[in-house]
Amino acid sequence: MTTKVKLEMEPKSGEVDPSRSALLIIDMQRDFLEPKGFGESLGNDVTKLQRAIEPCQRALKAARDKKMLVIHTREGHRPDMTDVHPYKLNKRGACPPVIGQPGPNGRILIRGEPGHDIIPQLYPAASEPIIDKPGKGSFYATDLEAILQAQSIETIFVCGVTTEVCVHTTIREGNDRGYHCIALSDACASYFDEFHTVALKMISAQGGIFGSVSSVDQFVKSLN
Ligand code: TIU
């Protein structure tokens, strides 16, 4: 038997089944949130992303308390970099190559390096799957869909960074695969304030063209 709960969300509030829901925490990695990592090397102010940490912690606690499936993702590449395509590596010369360069947290965006790992504040429990992804979307070249199908998931609560890049790409991919993707607005963050705002609007516009938008408070309230 399923027990659905009410959730306030845009564009239309409704019911979700926590037992068929997952919390997906996107790329809360040191390389995006701490100085001298990937994000800062691209010219960004990493403190803007740190705003999502506390809301993500609250969402994570609520999901863990409810025994909801929690999945973490990390963007990154093999140490030999054979899975980095030329466009991603140097963007046709638009900026110097960053991936694989040495930094204080190891080689940037390379699996196994300290900077590639998830920040301590949101560190995955041993039982929580971690998806290592080479791209922006969490479905591309990963086994995320196999996990969601095996666990009978129909709704994905999405948080993490950055709103308009990896969060958005993942929500678009999830929507096309038939999942109801719900962004938790305050638990997402961008290096660009205006992109964060517009990216969230784009999800719920047109009757929820890509999914829905809710907040951590509403998520926690729905689970209590
Ligand atoms: N640069 C940027 O905004 N984001 C990324 O490169 N990856 C993610 O969003 N995780």
Automatic annotation (TrEMBL):
The keyword Hydrolase applies. InterPro entries: Isochorismatase-like_dom (IPR000868), Isochorismatase-like_hydrls (IPR050272), Isochorismatase-like_sf (IPR036380). Residues 21-210 form the Isochorismatase-like domain. One of its GO terms (molecular function) is hydrolase activity. Gene3D superfamilies: Isochorismatase-like (3.40.50.850). Keywords: Hydrolase. Belongs to the isochorismatase family. This is Amidohydrolase RutB.
